[in-house]
């Protein structure tokens, strides 16, 4: 754990913000010797990066076989419907034990029974609001008792745009940020330490096309999905710096228009620029996400044509 810069700031962030502002003293200019060392470090970096580029090209020319996830325990938040249900069903095909955390108990239990009959796996449903930290901690204890440690964490639970008339009321804005953003913090805080201990794990974060480029008409949703994108980028770097690269893996997912809730997607398709877009089924989206997990892909765009378009125009 990285220590706080101020040992007295470990309590309430609000209380810390009320403290008198303590400005950073001026930083003295760098010496010529320091500038020279920076050049040396840069040259050293270029040489040290050669093996990395060789590995990138070798993986491209000789792709690694997919990892085996049979008997792994996978937790999918929001797994009772939409993209989450597609991911759950696809994971079960590869022998993964699946755990659904959702508010929809009817669909969640139905999928669990369906998968138990169809596949030789363990499956379970937990009714939980993943936007609440204490509820996620309790969920972690229950899963550990019933299934064992979580190997794959799919942070899929989310609130969609155009779901209610007054989307921008303070309560609805807070709810969207709590579910779409803070739930990622709570689940990772709960399950990542165990992945470190076992030196095995995979964290998947569902962002959106709206988390890659501005799309218009949904600044609430886009803001939350940009946050998920940043969260996953930082998490990937933290795992690398902690020394678990290749053992604990991250995948960021950027779906475009997926056939999920009628209220949201139906409205979306009436907006300029969206009516001609391809609608991907939840089954196909789930298939691509699990394929990305098995191949340790860092980023996944659904559909692939979206990736080509985004990279061509914005990167």
TrEMBL record:
Gene3D superfamilies: NAD(P)-binding Rossmann-like Domain
Alphabetized Pfam families for the sequence: adh_short
Classification via InterPro entries: NAD(P)-bd_dom_sf, Sc_DH/Rdtase_CS, SDR_fam
Entry GO MF terms: oxidoreductase activity, acting on the CH-OH group of donors, NAD or NADP as acceptor
GO cellular component labels: lipid droplet
UniProt entry keywords in alphabetical sequence: Oxidoreductase
Membership in a protein family: Belongs to the short-chain dehydrogenases/reductases (SDR) family.
PANTHER family given in the database record: FI23927P1-RELATED, PKSB
Protein name per Swiss-Prot or TrEMBL: Dehydrogenase/reductase SDR family member 8
Organism: Culex quinquefasciatus (Southern house mosquito)
Gene designation per UniProt: 6047515
């Amino acid at each position: 754990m990285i220590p706080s810069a101020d040992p007295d700031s470990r309590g309430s962030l609000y209380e810390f913000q009320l403290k008198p502002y303590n400005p950073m003293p001026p930083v003295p200019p760098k010496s010529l010797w320091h500038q020279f060392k920076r050049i040396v470090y840069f040259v050293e970096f270029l040489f040290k990066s050669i093996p990395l580029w060789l590995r990138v090209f070798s993986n491209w020319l000789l792709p690694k076989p997919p990892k085996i996830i049979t008997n792994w325990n996978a937790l999918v938040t929001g797994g009772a419907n939409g993209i989450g249900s597609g991911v759950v069903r696809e994971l079960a095909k590869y022998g993964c034990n699946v755990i659904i955390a959702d508010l929809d108990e009817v669909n969640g239990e139905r999928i669990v029974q369906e998968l138990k009959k169809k596949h030789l796996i363990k499956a379970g449903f937990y009714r939980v609001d993943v936007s609440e930290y204490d509820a996620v901690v309790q969920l972690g204890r229950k899963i550990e008792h019933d299934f064992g440690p979580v190997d794959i964490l799919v942070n899929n639970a989310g609130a969609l745009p155009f779901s209610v008339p007054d989307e921008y009321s303070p309560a609805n804005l807070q709810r969207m940020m709590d579910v779409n953003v803070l739930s990622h913090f709570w689940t990772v805080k709960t399950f990542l330490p165990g992945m470190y201990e076992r030196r095995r794990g995979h964290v998947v974060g569902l962002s959106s096309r709206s988390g890659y480029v501005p799309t218009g008409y949904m600044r609430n949703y886009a803001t939350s999905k940009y946050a998920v994108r940043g969260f996953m980028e930082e998490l990937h770097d933290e795992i690398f710096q902690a020394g678990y690269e290749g053992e604990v893996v991250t995948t960021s997912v950027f779906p475009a228009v997926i056939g999920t809730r009628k209220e949201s997607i139906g409205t979306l398709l009436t907006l300029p620029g969206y009516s001609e877009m391809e609608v991907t089924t939840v089954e196909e989206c789930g298939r691509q996400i699990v394929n990305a997990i098995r191949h340790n892909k860092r980023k996944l765009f659904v559909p692939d044509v979206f990736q080509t378009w985004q990279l061509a125009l914005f990167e």
